[in-house]
From TrEMBL, chains A, B:
Gene3D superfamilies: Aspartate Aminotransferase, domain 1 (3.90.1150.10), Type I PLP-dependent aspartate aminotransferase-like (Major domain) (3.40.640.10). Residues 417-436 are annotated as: Disordered. The lineage of its organism: Bacteria, Bacillati, Actinomycetota, Actinomycetes, Propionibacteriales. This is PLP-dependent aminotransferase family protein. Pfam families: Aminotran_1_2.
Length: 436, 436
């Protein structure tokens, strides 16, 4: 089929460089991208990707569900649908959210093309260029990419092992407002944070909500991993205790499968109306077939049983990673201990730079995401995100061993020659699927 | 499942009204929306919707294809994928476009969530607030909604039965530039125009391209209906004769089915790179399952045979509509004669207002889209779009008879009382699926 394809790339010059929107100027693929194309080779252990391991899904159940969907309901499932999303699925989404204490009405749910699109639509509705979004430090690379695309200014707020630090949040709000800037919302991932691997403690949840309410600040609660905790019941969502001040984002990408691209937002009524209009402008409607496929899966299958299987699988991988880190990492290396989700956040010994080290790591057949990807301001160079979601426990153990060897070599070089190549400055790490 | 749902809509006041982005201020659902919810009742003949009639699709073939996709390739089909889109599908898209004379490389294709999202991403990449987009008069309501969402200024250019008038295009470019404004692109639907129902003549295609090249103006060629012509071979795309100056948009929504939400853009290399980054920011990746489902359908089925069946079905409906219009409409009513696609553009006798008349038409159990929806500037009140794609020929005949009766009543009233209620001013007609 590809025979005689023309070479349409006569030139690599960009004739349009002077015509792009201001928001487009900063859209360049980072050097990390090129490395990741190397990192996808099978001999490299990738601790970089955020792809869920969906190998355990019941393919026979899903296969029958989608076949029946076409044969029995094809005229609906393959047609345009509601811009807000399928009513039955929105009802089921409310059932899913009830597990986290959320009491929502299907009318306040908007289905989106993955929760990534929910971040995009909320930002589209709220943010003018120059508006401030408060984020955790670090924060999800895909959300930072959206805020950048809408020309927002991101202000990071410190986290510790219990999640965002309330005093730091309060101070950031005051400082930004004292500077005369408008803050549009506080973007937070309270559970099994991407990339930090920590969760907001129960005690802090009330304080964070109280601070945001007192300061009249909207909360954007992004919760793709909430049902993937390794211990006990799902934590209570922020939205469960504040229906007017919180926009909640959910996703089926980690509890079922990402390839259907179905996420959602729950918002106060007036905001929900705006989100639907924004969705119609962006796509007319989210994919109907995807929505009905997920709806059918939820109805036909013990989907919570499947989520429990996922949890056990990820718990085993988390255990493998933490054990290997404890065994292999040199002193003065620290890391978070996640009790759910996909990620460990590792801080290198003083003087090491995760971005500068990445090419050497890939050469040693292990990959990670440098911490700078998760900051809008060039910070994070001493840190990295390690994912345990996709490789097997054996590969994780091997990957951590390779990484520890690279770090040890760096430390030896540093002891011999002093600090080496600093990070190449901050560039934009576009939130491709491999960084999700 | 809906038992004991809380009433979350304690208030209809919008607490956030002062916090939205400037672009959001104009996002309000039009009054037409409310009427259309009435118009969807079965007793109303809707000549308003742009939904394709997909009743003829081979459900057994598609059902088997999606089942096999899950069972044999589930780990890929349900996973995250490339932000640019599946390589095999992009290769097949190049084959589809070859039918219109386009010689493109799969590397220059970006898959989108319907071609609606392609319009959104192109506008995102190119348009700052205040930038001008030149559109035909009338133009597609969904594209106008996007341009509005990005705060563009739309300048309309006259069309006639041969499509956009080249002299009017050239004059508009000169006038806008003389006013010191930046034009980002010329948005055009050359084939079976939505809503105008006309096509750009072969002779004019070269002239339009020559004008745009001479004026260094990018063309955004939107072509969802190109393969749905009733006579002869598909027309040659503008992109076929200019690979550097044209961004081409295509869709499977009308040749296969819209519920998968798969469209695409073909762009010069540098622009394509920006579109992929914008896509990753918007959704991480377009729906993988949808893409592979369509790829499998194209491989397994005589999809062009299916398109030919669609053409014959739509031709029959077009014939029914034109015959009924000729038979029933009062003098001084005029309309276009489409030779493909879904739409007829009808102009009422002087003094009648299609928007003001719509409630009376719906009461008489027929619906249409008032012409004002297809202009950014309040024009079009004397016109309406009539769709023949979805109702049966019998229903079309009945609907046109009802509409003619309403128009005749309006004419009688006008002769008795003089001009009646003018249009209620221009409001924004959000591009919901029913207007697509």
């Amino acid at each position: 089929m590809s025979a005689d394809l023309p070479d349409v790339r006569q030139t690599r010059l960009d004739n349009y460089v002077d015509r792009y929107a201001a928001r487009t100027k900063g859209m360049t693929a980072s050097e990390i991208r090129a490395l990741f194309s190397v990192a996808s080779r099978p001999e490299v252990v990738s601790l970089a990707g955020g792809m869920p391991n969906i190998g355990g899904l019941p393919l026979d159940v899903v296969g029958s569900a989608v076949r029946d969907l076409v044969v029995d309901h094809g005229a609906t499932a393959m047609q345009y649908g509601s811009g807000q999303g399928d009513p039955t699925l929105r009802d089921q989404i409310c059932d899913v959210m009830r597990l986290e204490g959320i009491d929502a009405h299907p009318d306040d749910v908007v289905v989106t093309v993955g929760s990534q699109q929910a971040v995009d639509l909320v930002t589209r509705v709220f943010c003018d260029p120059g508006d401030v979004v408060i984020c955790e430090a670090p924060s999800y690379v895909g959300a930072l990419g959206v805020f950048r695309a809408y020309q927002c200014e991101v202000v990071h707020v410190a986290m510790d092992d219990d999640g965002v630090v309330p005093e730091a949040l309060e101070q950031a709000i005051a400082t930004v407002r004292a500077a005369g800037k408008r803050i549009k919302f506080f973007y937070t991932i309270p559970n099994f944070h991407n990339p930090a691997g920590v969760s907001l403690s129960s005690e802090r949840r009330g304080r964070v909500l109280e601070i945001c309410q007192r300061n009249d600040l909207l909360v954007l609660e992004d919760n793709p991993y909430g049902l993937l905790g390794f211990d006990g019941e799902p934590r209570r969502a922020l939205r469960a205790d504040d229906r007017e001040g919180v926009i909640y984002l959910g996703s089926f990408s980690k509890t079922f499968a990402p390839g259907f691209r179905v996420g959602w937002a729950v918002a106060p009524h007036a905001v929900r109306e705006k989100l639907v209009l924004a969705q119609e402008s962006a796509t007319l409607c989210p994919p109907v077939f995807s929505q009905l496929a997920i709806s059918s899966y939820l109805t036909r299958h013990d989907w919570m049983g499947q989520v429990k299987q996922f949890r056990e699988m990820y718990r085993e991988r988390r255990d493998a990673m933490l054990a290997a880190l404890t065994e292999k990492m040199p002193a003065a290396t620290t890391w978070t201990k996640p009790d759910g989700g996909f990620y460990v956040w590792l801080t290198l010994p003083d003087g090491l730079d995760a971005k500068a080290m990445l090419p050497r790591a890939v050469t040693a057949r292990v990959a990670y995401v440098p911490g700078t990807a998760f900051f809008s301001d060039g910070f994070g160079s001493q840190c990295m995100r390690l994912s345990y979601c996709h490789p097997t426990p054996e590969r994780i153990t091997e990957g951590v061993a390779r990484l520890a060897a690279v770090i040890n070599e760096e430390l030896e070089l540093r002891q011999t020659f002093g600090p080496l190549t600093p990070g190449a400055g901050h560039d934009y790490d576009a939130p491709g699927p491999e960084l999700s």
